[in-house]
Fold these 4 entries.
Entry 1:
Amino acid sequence: MYHGRSSGKGPSNPAQLYQQPPRLLIVQIALHSWADIRSNLCEALQNFFSLACSLMGPSRMSLFSLYVVQNQHECILPFVQVKGNFARLQACISELRMLQREGCFRPHGTSLQLAVQDGLQQFKQYSRHVTTGTSLSYTSLEITVLTSQPGKKVVRQLEEGLKDTDLVRVRRLQVVEITKGVLEYMDSGSPVEEPSSDESSILGTDIDLQTIDNDVVSMEIFFKAWLHYSGTDQEHIHLLLPSRCFSNISRAKDDSMCLKCDLQERLLSPSLLPGTADGSLRMDDPKGDFSTLYQMASQSSASCYKLRVIKALNSSGICESLTYGLPFILRPTSCWQLDWDELETNQQHFHALCHSLLKREWLLLAKGEPLSGGHSQREPTSTFYVIVPSRSPTLLVKAVATRELLLPSPFPLLPEDPPDDSLKIVESMLDSLELEPTYNPLQARSHLYSYLSSTFTKPQGRLHPSWESQALRKHPFKVSVTLIV
């Protein structure tokens, strides 16, 4: 099984940076739990695909297929391209919603492994038979098993059932246990977005285990992780710090300390979606207002984009009106091409930097170093960024304005003593507002999901490509076995 590797040496163009590997979702339906899970799961899938199918720019998801496992396994959606296929995806979700409330009564122990084998065989057949103008970006598949059964039990079942199966085309096999826990993150502005630390450690196998709560928001967060670029073929950013700050660290050729980092989006750009407030500002470029940082990080697989730290700032030393574009998250890289000692040392130094910045109450000002521009005689422009620490082992990166971009704007001092009448009126108005300690985006709903869904044509029943038949839908390949219990 692949361990996070994909073909090639890394993303060679922006489209590959965003696109994720093909995904197979297997939903295991169990007695007494399906009625509680069904509505939340279907709503989360509907919301997620309304986003994934609406995003402008490079496709972030390539292929998707859905199986259900009851008394036997069934493919209710063969592999399809996600973008441009919302009607088929919606029809599939509708069929999932209509499955019997009580789930299966006698689930057979081999049905789950047969679904994995079936889906893997279907992916291989799709790869052989589907010819498009461009070849498939990925030759490996990610498989997620969604279950309400005890996760460790399902992992053991898959271990035993798949021990003789060739999983070389499987990039990742993951079991996600849906628990009945109460949503814990609705009161927090930073919901959990990463798998638990126990992932990959269960039984020492290659099968990942994760748990999520049985609510729409938790499931949405899980599915949205599919929109992140998760490749580990190459680090994205080299963060360069002055060498005199560090004495015993391996340095790059320019004698600077180099922290190797991966770049992650914090949120989706509203300009990439119809119906958002700033949709009228969208430029002709279908990439919308993608930050220059993400563009630069994706333009070359031969060399990483470099951010050189040039100054430190007090934490209160930056005006928010000077930042622009989307914020991004920096994490220590998980690139598999680095040896273990280098990965560990890089992570320790990254965490030490976060800790030291918090302790000193500092920010960092960094300058983006242009990639090689060939023999052009024009001096390339530079972009500056402010780097902000947090209580998590991450750094926030935001583009900051330069002299050329700044417009004049007077800011006179606020008068010390406003009129008493005005002060009383405003104070009374403010007292009537509910005070929250932090802003929680999970409690702010813009009704974007319903708007996006309404922009697509309503499904006209379930459709299938010409090379598929109804028999293939039920049991696509020879490894499928009908189980009568």
Entry 2:
Amino acid sequence: METDEVSIREQLFHNRVRETIICVLLFTCLYMVCYLILTHFKKTAEFVTDDIEDATVNKIALWLCTFTLSVAVCAVLLLPISILSNEVLLTFPHSYYMQWLNGSLIHGLWNLVFLFSNLSLVFLMPFAYFFTESEGFAGSKKGVMARVYEAVVLLILLTLLVLGIVWVASALLHDNVARKSLYDLWEYYLPYLYSGISLFGVLLLLLCTPFGLSRMFSVTGSLLVKPRLLEDIEDTFSCTVFEEDSLCRKLNCGSPSCWAKLNMEAMRKEYQAVQSRRVALEMRRKASPWQRNLGYPLAMLMLLALTVMCVLMVCFNVLELLLDEAAMPRGMEDPHLGMASFSMFGSLGAAVQVVLILYLMVSSVVGFYSSPLFYGLMPRVKDTNLTQIIANCVSLLILSSALPVFSRTLGITRFDLLGDFGRYNWLGNFYIVFLYNMLFAGLTSASLTKTVTWAVQRELICAFGLNRLPLTVSRSTIPCKLLLASGLSKIQ
């Protein structure tokens, strides 16, 4: 009997050690990748200065930002890893090499991501910002530790302020919970704070994702070579080269008598626009016929298929919410991996769920940086200061930590939320979940319709050469006969 107890304890110990090693290896790899990404965007002048103190402070803040970004990437990968792990265990149920992949590992990974995401959002990122902006208290000895003391004091004051605001809000909404939270901070107070943060993140995803889904078409189109059926590439490229050479001679002309009255700044902007157009035309000339005529349509069709699939799945989830209470998002303690697939279409459906989750995350990031409110946060290569890096890491962490709740609320996946992700108070409210699904479907459909109609109109105008008309001519007043004649003359 004692031998059995010892063997069980040893097995539990070995399982815990194995799970710890796997989590450490995964996080280490993500940390190195995120560090390379941040060093690609950071402003080098802030880290190579004559002031050793400022350089040290900036390096410590950069390490904290790298930790936060790696937690954000891990939060994005939570649902894909969980769904794929379940499908792998279904495919190889008795494989010796897959014994390390179990429910305990996945559950522990969810708990670690939840803990580190809240730790980074509430403590590490505010501390990094205060640390970079602090100079030490007046009269104290200057140095790194003086900055640490000031940053810690400011962080404590900020924490007390936030906790006081949340306690007042909980007292106004739930008086009993607010009273209990004074005695039991962990059970009542912090979950309420986490629910507010998650609700803000999910609402931010609701605003950014539909806009990002419509922007994905233009962003992808700028990276690919667009086909032009009614345009002679060689002729257009020659005209663009001549125009670029002409503008270049005018800019380099040293005779003040001829060009004194010209607006050189406007000419310089025009020269840059012509140069970028020439580079795009040169790329199209070098592209193969398959890439020029088939790559762009296939990419657009794939984006359209993914977007339509997301809308259809959300609409189907709305019907399930009306008919079945089991469609509501909820938490679970034991994931029970390897028992059944989380998609009615098996492994293929699970793979589609993973692709849709990653596609929604990319679209939300594109929509976030494309919105006028957050456009200034977009990082620039080798020209992003540390304050912008901190703001970007906080924004990406908020979006990524809300992604599992976002995907489960919309019905993209049937994988229930693990750990503390399922303890949010608003998840059990039918009206919030139903209204959220309806808003997402409506906003995405409206954005998609507007994007497709405007894209078709723009491509038709460019194809028939109507974009070269003078600005005084209204395109809406152009008769249909002139439009057809222009197209036929280009074909001939």
Entry 3:
Amino acid sequence: MRLPINLLCLALSILPSARSVLLDEAYSVDYHHELLGIPQLQTTFFHQPRKHDKATLLYTLSDLGVLGAVNPATGKVVWRQLLGDGSSEAGHLRPVEGEDAVVSALGNRIVAWDAMSGRELWGTVFGGTVRDLEVMETVAGSKDSTDTLALFQEDGKAVVRRLAGANGDVVWEHKDASGDAPLQVSTNAMHVFVVALHGSAGSYNLKVTVLDPATGKRTNEYTLVTKADIHAPEDVLLVGANSAAPIIAWTDRALKTLKVNILGKSGDIQSLPLKESDGSIVKVTLLAPNLVQSKSDFLVHSHSAKSNRADVYHIDLASGSIKKTYELPKLAGQGAISLSSRDANVYFTRITEDEVLIFSSSSHGILGRWPLKVEGSHGSFLYGASEVVQKSSDTYAVRSALVSTEQNWVLVRNGAEGWVRPEGLSGAVAAEWAELPESESLAKNLEVEAESNPVSAYIHRVNRHINDLQYLPEYLQNLPMRFLSSILPVDAVAPKVGIPVRDSFGFNKIVVVATQRGRVYGLDAGNQGRIIWSATAFPQAGGKTWDVKGIWVDNGKGHTTIRGAEGEYTLVNTTSGKKIESMPAGSWPTVRNTAVVNSPSGQWVLPIGVDGNPGEVPLEWAPNDSLVVLGDNGDVKGLKFEGQGVNAQPEVTWTFTPPAGLRITNVIHRPIHDPVASIGRVLGDRTVLYKYLNPNIVLVTAVSDEASAASFYLLDTISGDILYSTTHEGVDTKQPIASALTENWFAYSLWGDISPTTTDSLPSSKGYQIVISEMYESDIPNDRGPQGAAVNSSSLEPSEVPNAEPAVPHVITQTYLTPEAISHMSVTSTRQGITTRQLLCTIASNNAIVGIPRTILDPRRPVGRDPTALEQEEGIFRYHPMIEFDPKLVLTHQREVIGVKDVIASPAVLESTSLLFAYGIDIFGTRVAPSAAFDILGKGFNKLSLVATVLALWVGVVVLAPMVRRKQINGRWITS
């Protein structure tokens, strides 16, 4: 009987059709926190990026030297530029009013940027360091209103340069040979003022030099006597610029009097009393407009330990006197006040603990008032930038971008929260993976049942199951969604907000991140890097950074230990961030590094001193294994703890000192989790090259700046023997030199000479290169080397022959060229080590992370010939010296991940998958499958079609079964 044509068409229609790979699928398993850093008060503002467009963007130059433009409506980054190296170096940023540009300065470089696209318009580099930057709005005798004034400190002298707004050329420069420390530059419609610190540290006077803006010639100079008040540049509160009456202000040491000088009026210092409330004043800030057409008003914001208040003053341009206009009352908390100008109007926006208010500088009347409604806990608001818009004669709107004590950047629009950027997460200096703890109640119940007799255990289990029935309604309620999410091609259930739970694939993990500002974060790697918790560990004073030396996660207890360089440490709960224990700086000796060690009492993190000496420890906490440390004399030492009574002392077992002229820059070891699935490499003829799998090895990098050379040493950590060494000539030691060590191979990258003797196809030249080396027990297949017949082996006694040489590995090396420098290297990690490893390379110039497969880096690829049939069976292909960073190798795709310091890997439950986490200025995480996802269905797999196909086949069987039986019966009758 023939199959009905309609049933056949139904079955074919259910089969899935061909699908293309969509662009958005590349971003489904990774996440990216595109960060800027903490915005600074003087370098954050709203600005119109186009002359004839009313819309504005929010600009900032952060404490990490990242310049960015943010869409104030959504909080998304429009564009950004990394100006420095990510360090906390003070920068300057100014808008060019009425123009489509902003101007920045950091270090010795000044750049003008297109305000809309972030494209560089012009840039110039000078000697010394930029101390201040201002844009001249109007200049006497000149039609150009966009020139830039830059104040430099060069060779201990102050240099002022006026740069043309069109191309950055120097119009004029003025040098001060007195040796005074330059502080700031200011300008009004007729003069340029240069403020410098005159005298010795701890007792400064203020020297003001007046220059002609057209020629740069000095026209006047006077000194303000401030020795009793100004001891450091931070004591000067404000030097106004581009105002009709620019001022310089400071306070006395007791914070009881504010002293103000209107620039250009020599010897005229006006004293304004600072009113105390709720105790002594602890902080004073000044806000003044930066537009020439704005009213000459300014605000003094005073803080005590419990409250804050403000006074508004007006400067009479005719008489030069300063009078108080009104005051803002005392309110509890810190509070934030920001200033905004539009034409001649000056507005002050006050953000309190529960409301937002707008004032004009002319009157104390409230122009606008809204209750403050923010989601989550941001702490108190410290400072910010505001934009006030007058919609009608008596209606105003305001939006403020505020920095909070929790280091969040929050936009408040008419009192309501618009968006939040977790900028405190930027500047990460250390991170570690953490497993999610299992259910404590279930673990305890199983432990009780395991220790009971069978009858008691059975009764206990029945009671436990009866108790679990209370969760049955919730389970039944979620069952339809679970069923739909399991068969639909997309997730039907939105991710839950809260503490993550373990999943069967091992994707849900926590990443503990420590930042340079002293904060600690917990991120959910299985939910787009969502911040689960954040806490302050050790707040850092201005200009200082937290030097974290180690993070160790105790997955059994759910605790995380973080140790700093000054002896401080903190112990927090991994899932909640709750502080369990903490010791301040100075509690322990200074720490150079840390090591996670195994001891009779379990694993713990051992601090190592600056001289490489960890000191004595209790005997029960003494490390079981040898340690490798850096000494204070530029050497590497092996340590072994020996018991002496109740304590154990570290004893030096060996010392490695590099040759004269070389200094050690890096020492790396194999990853803690580094499983090996196969002890050998099977060749095409079915013979085996046995891998050299020594867990006790380190790779030492040493460089010589004078000789432009780099040497690499492979050391045995038990005996200190050199197992392998190599030297490269013509190396630029200022370029990054990265390395990685795993399984039986290691790799490193550098910029230097490419010797023609390395390979036959490489001419003598210079360039960026990756050197890959594989280690085997012997160069002869099926040979285990000198220790092949030994049941046990020892690094201290490698042979029965006295004083025998160590059994060194057979090393196969190859060199490849790369188009760009590699700043960091690491390796993927899987659960069993079956999946082929991938070399992870950070490309700082492209702000990208590249994953290079091991097959490309195979050092056995034939040079100058095609592979033989046997070599093709191994998967080897012809050697080509250049490795192009193909877009398919870029793990970050089109994202720009800036300032990456490290990339750490963690295995998932699935053998095919490795979890990656990159941190630095940005945060980036993803999942990679170097050998393809062979143990999980892909996102494009249509589960619904599979279920429908099975159902259709079942229907077909039900329909056809009676027909087949009838045909068989009829056939038997016919044959009989």
Entry 4:
Amino acid sequence: MKRRAGEREKRMKKKKLLEELGKDRLPYMTPVDADFHQLWKSRYSKLIFRKSDTVPEELHQMVQEAFLTLREHDCFFQDLVRIKGKDFVTPVSRILIGNPGYTYKYLNTRLFTVPWPTVGYDIKYCSPQIHDVCKALIRLNDYLHIEAVKALQNLVETKEINDTTVIDGEQNFATSLAEKESISKDESSCCVQADNYISLKNRTSYNMTLLNYMDPLQMLYLKQEPYFGMGDMAVSWHHDENLVERSTVAVYSYSCEGSAMAESDEEILKGRDPAVWHVGLKVAWDIETPGLAMPLHQGDCYLMLDDLNMTHQHCVLAGFSPRFSSTHRVADCSRGTLEYIFGQCELALQNLQTDLDSMALSLKSLETAVIKQVEEIHNEVEFEWLRQFWFQGKRYLKCTDWWLKPIAKLEEFWRKMEIMTSLVLSEFRKEEQIEEQRAKTIRCFLLVLTERQRLRKEWTARALRMERHYFSLLIGLDIIKAVQETATNSRL
């Protein structure tokens, strides 16, 4: 309900903003504008930019080779996401790499990590090349973590974080964390330091990276940026979802600028160069502050610090050349890890017992609250995990089969919960229960079952739409290829 209310509020804000604009467009600035840096400093100061020449060359080489390897192995995939009750295929192709057993959910789609090398986990990759990819990305993750700590330290020093009660503690801790993540043992400040250690670690320790890839020349259509007239968008205006509050997002960008279309032949009168990829930023739902369009070149990085992701929105503006990015984030995984969902299953199965003599299964309790909890967990396992995985998570088998064992375990839990649903139905046919209590339990039970039936129909429809998308994609690629061949022949 909260999610739906939030979506309605966003739609109303967007409608109001577009109505206020009419046919006009809001102003925005790029680095060629005289007031660009003043605008950046005053309204977008929590956007930190690192040019490629500040990043170690060895790291550039490792990461860029990793991107190309993933593309060669066809490991980037378009997602079928749900917006306003409708399914859409993302123009950007993605893959999630991160901590073993972690997932990331956005726009009603759950992605499953390809686990990067982690102590204590036996991870078998499909090839040595995929192992090297994951190793390179965890190296990048460590580097961006250190850069984020430094940036937060600078932010504290300029007193832009408003929580003045912990500024000194955060500043001192940021310095020590950047050096070796060590904490002072001073008895008089150990409690403050410990609190700040948790705060900064939660906000800068990236547990995954969402990798993106798009070749604009392979797209039949790209949506136009609606507020400023910034041109083609690869990713529309948004706040990143399901992150730890006030955590930093770090992005490494790599556009293939050696391609033939990397430079624009058009005379640029004003605004951004359409040949170059940009990240766009704006103050959320504000028509007074000009927007910002920051060009992105090979190996550039940027950080969105503190509450920037909450107070501002960002988009990605397409250039002409193919582009990769690695977006490192501290995902809120309170409900998105194997540890969490296994715990939920164990909680539900506590209500199932086996007779030692007959081995017959029965329920320990028929209390309404217990039945409701078990059936809601049943729905969560099926629709938030199993169907999500088999719908698109299995594509990661190109990288590793790591998820197959835990998913098989979840399926076994689900089968037991299906039996528990049957046992509840059997109990309802008996007459021993008090009528009033029986009626209350039935009403509660039917609500959960009705929702399960609705979701099963919805997922069946989504699977059909995905099949149709892949069919149309093949046709679309044939059309693009034919157009490109025609253009080549006409030039000859």
